[in-house]
Amino acid sequence: MFFCFILSKIKKRNYETKNMQFSSENFTSNTQALEKELEWLITIIQARFKEITEDKVIKFPNPPQLIQKSYYNAFLENVPENLKTPVRLLLILSMAKALRPSVLELLHVNNPYTQKNYANFGIIAENSFVMPSVQTFLYLATGENIADRVFLGNFFNPDNIFLANNIIELRGQSKDLYQKTIHISDEYFEYFTTGNSYQYQYSEDFPATLYTTEENWDDLILPERTTFYLQDIFAWMRNYNTIVQDPTFKKFTKGMKFLLHGEPGTGKSISVALFGKDFGKPVYRIDLSQVVSKWVGETSKNIGKIFDIARNKDWILFFDEGDALFGKRTENNSANDRYGNQEIAYLLQRIEDHKGIIFMATNKLPNMDKAFVRRFNVRVPFPIPDANTRYDIWCEAFKDLELGNVNFEYFAAKVDNTGASIRSFARYCKIWMLEKNMKHLNHDEVAGLLQTHLEHEGKIWSPNTRL
Questions:
Q1: Cα–Cα distance for residue pair 302/292, rounded to 1 Å
Q2: Do 210 and 276 form a contact (C-beta atoms < 8 A)?
Q3: How many CB atoms lie within 10 A of CB 447?
Q4: Is the model's pLDDT at 320 over the cut of 60?
Q5: pTM, rounded to two decimals
Q6: The pLDDT of residue 329
Q7: What are the two backbone dihedrals, phi and then psi, of residue 142, each rounded to the nearest 5 degrees?
Q8: CATH architecture type of domain 209-382
Q9: Where does residue 164 rank: exposed (0-12), middle (13-18), buried (19+ CB within 10 A)?
Q10: Residues 6+ apart with CB under 8 A from 17
Q11: Which secondary structure element, helix H or strand E, spans residue 260, and what is its range?
């Protein structure tokens, strides 16, 4: 229960502090607080070393007084007093490599009897650095006290705040928990040092990008049927927090999952970005077609990392090109088939267990696994717009261009293109007007430019034909 208490308090504290204005005073307070913690860590290492070499129990060094204006202190204010000292030790030990790696060199001492590092300290050599492990923390915190060691071992349970809330990361290939190295997450290192909110960047370990738009719903003209189904998503997102508090529905509700399906350029991605914008939630886009092709055999590991980080974040996870991974499963005719299906099953379970918001988009709904499709709370079709909808899109896209007698009804009837294609063509016309110093465009000029633009898209069209 105490771990749940810390989690709820820390999440509230993060919300209050991460929007505070950064100042040099904050930065100085943060660095001074961490400097004092490093000096305290040195005294702990020296005391434990003395305990080993002189074979006597030492008094655990008292931690320094916290600096009130630091973000580090703001975080620790919500930790119960009986846990504050070991939590402080865990945090500064996880930051030592980044702040002052020489401190960890104090652990790199050979036992004169074995000519090896003291096993008590549990250090791991990694690229010329001395890395602290779970064993390092437990020994520095508890010495030879088994009861305390077992109690503090709870810090490393997967559902405990430090791992579940992505404060601490455990790394290493060993299956032995005690040999896992301890690292502060990039997010919390940024928070403790500068107080700033960390911006996750695309990488092999985090194959997702922050997805935003400057458009509004008024800029997005959709078929009536699509707009109707999108209202279901609005209803879910507005009322979800109430539903999960209702004893009748709580056990049947685990997160929100929405599937958007239709041709490219019909508004799926922009719709997801607009939901994030309306509800004030960051949208992280994962292009599954890129993830699967780039990390064959690593798919579940890398996407699993996103779920781990997002577990207690107020994010929207947007999986694009969903059919690339969640297509119809193959027969287990080979080891590769079995492995692929195992990966898919793992990711399906992660999606089902995720308590946050997930959007998935696909251009190929018939290729999707039917059992998987049924798991979505709302499924929204995004068809190619009809002539009437295309006409509205043409008018909206060209409203800021100077035009002569241009018949948009003609183009809407002649070319079955998407909203994205029409908006792209409007930009193309604007570029040509600037390039040729043209004051306006007439109907024939628009028709000629449209023919060229469609050729760029791989389509053949002339003003006398229908596409």
A1: 10
A2: no
A3: 19
A4: yes
A5: 0.80
A6: 53
A7: -125, -10
A8: 3-Layer(aba) Sandwich (3.40)
A9: middle
A10: 71, 74, 195
A11: strand 256-262
